[in-house]
Design goal:
single chain, alpha+beta, five-stranded antiparallel β-sheet, elongated
Length: 167
């Protein structure tokens, strides 16, 4: 009698695992801590005026498409508002990304409040697994100035949409 119960329980667990694998095949755990640490390292480099080292943290794709333009924007921001003096991490979200060739991976969008001498801004870094050996690279960057509300973005950016449904 005891063996029969064990077989039934084992069968039920096996069935649940099989059904879960069928319905959730793409479910996997993403540890955001290394991505958050990379974002903090980026702003630390800007704070220490290591701008070239900070720009090296962008992905190759970002740098090829927007690198020079983004470098000019950051230089202009530093010239007008001063260099980064402080930053705070506000939060993060996982962002699933699917490329045209149907490859899927998870990126992490990390939100910061960045203080420069004469400006506070909200900045979001989209950090994705990096192809050059380092664990995470900056694939997208958004800056929203608190004084004028101007918004700059380049690279891979994630937009949240709220959908309401009524019956």
């Amino acid at each position: 009698m005891m063996r029969l119960r064990l077989f039934i329980i084992a069968g039920a667990v096996l069935l649940i695992v099989i059904v879960a694998a069928m319905f959730f095949p793409k479910l996997h755990y993403v540890d955001p801590r290394p991505a958050v640490a990379s974002g903090e390292e980026y702003f630390s480099k800007l704070k220490q005026r290591q701008i070239d080292d900070a720009l090296e943290m962008y992905t190759d794709g970002f740098r090829q498409k927007k690198g020079e333009e983004w470098q000019r924007l950051l230089t202009q921001l530093d010239t007008q508002s001063g260099s980064v003096t402080d930053f705070k991490t506000f939060g993060w979200k996982i962002a699933p990304v699917q490329l045209r060739d149907s490859a899927e991976f998870a990126c992490v969008v990390v939100q910061f409040q960045v203080t420069r001498n004469a400006l506070i801004s909200e900045e979001k870094l989209t950090l994705c697994p990096h192809q050059r050996g380092t664990e995470w690279g900056i694939a997208g960057h958004e800056i929203t100035r608190s004084d004028t509300g101007q918004h700059y973005e380049a690279g891979l950016t994630v937009q949240e949409k709220t959908i309401y449904s009524t019956k």
